[in-house]
Amino acid sequence: MAEQEPLRYCLPTFSIEAAFWKAFSEEKISRLKLSEEDVDIGASLFPLQKSNRVGVRLANTSIRTSHDVEGVIRNFNSIDSFKSADKAGALQEEGEKLRQYIASGEWAENARKLVPFLVLSYCDLKRHLYLYLCAAPSLLPKAPFIAAPPLPAFASQLSHLLPAEKEVEEWWRSGEGMFGVVKDGRVEGLSCLSHAVGKDGKSELTLVVKDHSTVEVGVTFAVRNLLAAVFIQFGRDVFPVRLIGARLPLSSSVATEVHLPPALAEHEEREGEGEGDRRSHRASLFRIFGMETDNSGKVKVKKVDLSSFFSPYQLAETGVDLNLRLLRWRSYPDVEVEKLKEVKCLLLGAGTLGCSVARSLLGWGVRHITFVDNGNVSYSNPARQSLYTFDDAKEKRAKAEAAAAELKRIFPSVQSEGHVLSLPMPDHPPLSAGEEESLLHTARTLRSLISEHDMVFMLTDSREARWFGTAVAAQLEKLAFTAAVGVDSYVCIRHGKGRGKGEGCYFCNDVVGVKNSQVGLALDRQCTVTRPAAAMLASAYVVELAIASYFAHAEPPSSALGSPPQQLRGYLSNFEQMHFEGKAFEHCTACSAKVLDALSASFEPTIARVVSGRGELEQISGLAAFNASITAEVEEVVDIDSDDDKGDDIEE
Q1: Radius of gyration of the CA atoms of the chain, in A
Q2: Which residue ranges of the chain lie beneath pLDDT 70?
Q3: Omega before 556 cis (within 30°)?
Q4: d(CA 368, CA 543)
């Protein structure tokens, strides 16, 4: 044999891009959740200049797609399970799969599987911290294959083996796999390998590999499994084989003849066995190696902290999204919380209820929140109303604008607006023609806002202030919710879109008209005097009612968050809460058909009549006639009873 030496390989160095971890994080959150199943991934090979290594790159497109080589990632749910995992055992497990795949004889049809790889990882999704180990399972004989002549030996000795340069370049760039065989002066895929070897197994065989290594004394690590596969498939008689490490430019290529080490060359085939058994026996002569090591030969866990790649705004957004999406891992797998990003919520009232509702909506991932209020922040507000500060009170900032600004400061990704507007209210007539025109302009603006939003919340502190939003939301068939508090009680109601199912609104239980409730009130009635936590409870429940109702009314409807009641009423005096199903009232002053028809037919004139305070709303809804008929019936009953009494007296 000519001058010889062990065949040397350029080992893999894994380069996992930040984009891969971002894409895999999405895979983990959305699909894998609590599963630790293996996920198919692909990687591309690339040269590392002035290095005896070959780069293996994983990018954002690597997940569940095919590349130069194919592997899997196995992600553990906790750092403890990652640390205690049998990593050597995982390598052996993947190596055994490779051994069986080669022994099956199918490898020539899908040579990508000849170069498998494994990534073991733990992803700290909250801190954007990733721990991982990589391996490229390889089958190696106890003694190495022999290169004779030693590498490099291309230009001087074996250049005649290579087909035309153009032919090799076309094969290289074709994407037909890493390996080829020279047949009739052309580079063909490994599917032609059996024809190239011949039936006697003694034909001269020339293998070509896309070699991404850059040093002259070694070839890519991918050759290890190719040589093992050729031996396992065809036995010792096919060796020596000629090996060409094709590189670009082709002048940098290397070549040699590969001979078997003594242990394989002296291997005796078992007589009387089938071909499958002989392949399995040959495969047993190889050991499994392949854990990635550093330059000192040590296996080390790699750590990547990607938090510095994100701006603080991105970290805030991903953090909020993560908490919500984790709900789907165990408790609510069918709740598509991502849809809430597009839901637009209008909050009529920016007091204690409005501030608390906004914060809870923010926690649910709602990104579009609009406030309407005409008040200014006072010194009594910041202690109870969570979106205001002492400085807001000192500067007498408008509540709607201050709330919207604070919401953006808390979470910059939210789209929040504040509108300083006074709600049109029954029995609150304008004092001049100019005020009436301003009021009607406000009514038009508010109707446009309600039309543009998906859910409307009535969160004001008086009955009449809840009327406009309730009526217009019903007219426009919007999902609407009312939260109201008393001294030690609260109520949350769903209405609006559900009216077609007979669901009543806040006003459906009233048999009196909506009047100005602020006239002649003492100080304790002018303020919202209530047990401090009552508003917080009402806000929390009305948001949960709204979110559950949103999914219950979605297409397709979902009851994953429970079947939401139509009304919740709570009483802190005895810490009791009850559910109700309020029915729509035919003569309701807010959502009855007559009121909605009037608003649809002549919106501005109807608003002008309602706010005039002359009992117009009772006339429009038919409530006045209804009450008159009830009164007449009662009087008739009283008259009859009086006559009966007189008759009894006479008989006595």
Answers
A1: 39
A2: 1-2, 152-165, 198-203, 270-272, 498-500, 515-528, 632-652
A3: yes
A4: 14
User: What is the C-alpha to C-alpha distance for residues 181 and 208, in angstroms, rounded to an integer?
Assistant: 6
Interior angle at CA 33, CA 31 and CA 36, nearest 5 = 100
Closest CA to 41 of 75, 72, 74: 72
CB distance 115 to 95 below 8 Å: no
DSSP H helices, 104-256, are 165-173, 193-197, 223-234
Amino acid symbol at 645: D
Q: Tell me the Ramachandran region of residue 236: left when phi exceeds 0, alpha when psi lies from -120 to 50, beta otherwise.
A: alpha
- Among 500, 465, 511, 510, which Cα is nearest to 484's? 465
Residue 345: active-site member? no
Q: From 94, 105, 97, select the one nearest 279 (Cα to Cα).
A: 105
Q: Provide the 10 A C-beta neighbour count for residue 601.
A: 9
Give the amino acid at 258.
Answer: V
Looking at residue 427, what is its pLDDT? 85
Q: Which of 169, 168, 177 is nearest to 114 (CA)?
A: 177
DSSP string, 541-579: HHHHHHHHHHHHTSSS---TT----SEEEEETTTTEEEE
Tell me, what's the pLDDT at 634? Answer: 62
Sheet order of strands, 576-580 included: 415-420, 368-373, 344-348, 455-458, 479-485, 489-496, 567-571, 576-580
Those residues whose C-beta lies under 8 Å from the C-beta of residue 231, and which sit 6 or more positions away, are: 238, 239, 260, 264, 282
Q: Cα(528)–Cα(490) distance, rounded to whole angstroms?
A: 12
* Distant-in-sequence, close-in-space partners of 208: CB < 8 Å, separation ≥ 6: 168, 171, 179, 180, 181, 182, 187, 244, 246
Length of the chain: 652
Number of other CB atoms surrounding residue 173 within 10 Å: 10
User: Closest by alpha carbon to 614, among 515, 509, 471?
Assistant: 515
Give the alpha-carbon dihedral of 597, 602, 604, 610, to 10 degrees.
-50
Per-residue model confidence (pLDDT) at position 166? 74
Sign of torsion over alpha carbons 325, 326, 328, 329: positive
Gap between the Cα atoms of 203 and 326, Å rounded:
60
Sign of CA dihedral 325, 331, 333, 338: negative
Residue 524: CB atoms within 10 A of its CB come to 8
Q: Are 141 and 156 in contact (CB under 8 A)?
A: no
Q: Catalytic residue, from 355, 527, 588, 591: name it.
A: 527
pTM of the model: 0.77
Whole-number pLDDT of residue 647: 43
DSSP letter, residue 226: H
Q: What is the DSSP letter of 309?
A: G
Instruction: Give the pLDDT confidence of 117-152 residue by residue, as tens digits.
Output: 999 999 999 999 999 999 999 999 989 999 987 776
State whether residue 434 is helix, strand or coil: helix
Neighbours of 160 (CB within 10 A): 6
454, two tokens:
């998906």
Q: C-alpha distances in angstroms, 530 versus 432, 434, 491, 520? A: 35, 37, 13, 20
Phi, psi of 589 (to 5 degrees): -80, -5
Residue type, 394: K
Give, in order, the Cα–Cα distances in Å from 244 to each of 8, 154, 239, 548, 578. 14, 8, 15, 65, 81
- Give strand ranges (E) for 333-375: 344-348, 368-373
